[in-house]
Amino acid sequence: GESVGLHLPTLSVQEGDNSIINCAYSNSASDYFIWYKQESGKGPQFIIDIRSNMDKRQGQRVTVLLNKTVKHLSLQIAATQPGDSAVYFCAEIHPGPVHKYIFGTGTRLKVLA
Amino acid sequence: EAGVTQFPSHSVIEKGQTVTLRCDPISGHDNLYWYRRVMGKEIKFLLHFVKESKQDESGMPNNRFLAERTGGTYSTLKVQPAELEDSGVYFCASSHLGTGVEKLFFGSGTQLSVL
Predict the structure, then answer these.
(1) Lowest-pLDDT range, A8-12, A101-105, B21-25?
(2) pLDDT (tens digit, 9 = 90+) per residue, B6-16?
(3) Which residues fall within 8 angstroms of residue A71, CB to CB, at 6 or more apart?
(4) d(Cα B113, Cα B91) in Å, to the nearest integer?
(5) Where is pLDDT greater, at A28 or B22?
(6) Cβ-based neighbours of B98, under 8 Å, separated by 6 or more
(7) Chain B residue numbers touching A98 (CB-CB < 8 A)
(8) Given CB atoms, is A45 within the 8 Å cutoff of chain B?
(9) Exposed, middle or buried by CB within 10 Å (0-12, 13-18, 19+), for B32?
(10) How many contacts does A have with B, using Cβ atoms within 8 A?
(11) Is residue A112 a contact partner of residue A17, using CB atoms and an 8 Å limit?
């Protein structure tokens, strides 16, 4: 069936270290992927996206890597800060006349001072 | 520009009661989505409006859930009668209607607790 899952439900990282959040997806037809960040009391907010014709995309302190061979997506956060503490969701978007977002279960990132 | 707003932010009701959640999308966004997240699980799709029409309601759990978007502006999601398993955070999201993939903008959600 269709599913997007995460390997680690909780990730604790020392402030200043790099964080890597992983995500596996199952639909090889998905052609677009997005990472969202959800802080406490807020809705998910867009962080970075990547299309299936790319394998890497960089933003400010964040990098998304896409490995289509093993259907794996990761979010790398450089020099993790306390403000990065949140739940991170990956989403795969299925192509078609109506674009459907399929979200993973989320990974909680805890930044330790 | 105002973001997606949802009301109420929290709702605590007893099993069997009725609750209505409201979502005001970003002005000009024709796409409106409802999602639900049960604690510790994924954000699950409920349904999708394009303007006032239901484009896809395949995620609606059962006929106790009714979503409307009269006039193609704000939307309501009614749960009647509520059951314990309906507890969770209900998110609304909106986006422009375009030919490509449009970014979803989420509201802060309504935390629903059914006791």
Answers:
(1) A8-12
(2) 999 999 999 99
(3) A24, A25, A26, A28
(4) 14
(5) B22
(6) none
(7) 48, 55-56
(8) yes
(9) buried
(10) 47
(11) no
**What's CA A48's distance to the chain center, in Å?**
8
* B101 in reach of chain A (CB within 8 A): yes
Residue A93's closest chain B neighbor by CA?
B101
B26 interfacial to chain A (CB closer than 8 Å): no
The two tokens of residue B91 are 């998110």
Rounded Cα distance, A38 and B35, in Å: 14
End-to-end CA distance of chain A: 40
3-class secondary structure, A84 = helix
What angle (nearest 5°) sits at the alpha carbon of residue B20, between those of residues B40 and A86?
A: 30
- Report the Cα–Cα distance between both ends of chain B, in Å, rounded: 37
CB contact under 8 A, B107 and A43: yes
B108, B8 Cβ separation under 8 angstroms: no
Contact A104 B42 (CB under 8 A): yes
> Among B93, B41, B92, B109, which Cα is nearest to A103's?
B41
Residues belonging to chain B: 115
B81: preceding bond cis by omega (within 30 degrees) = yes
Helices (H) and strands (E) in chain B, counts: 0, 11
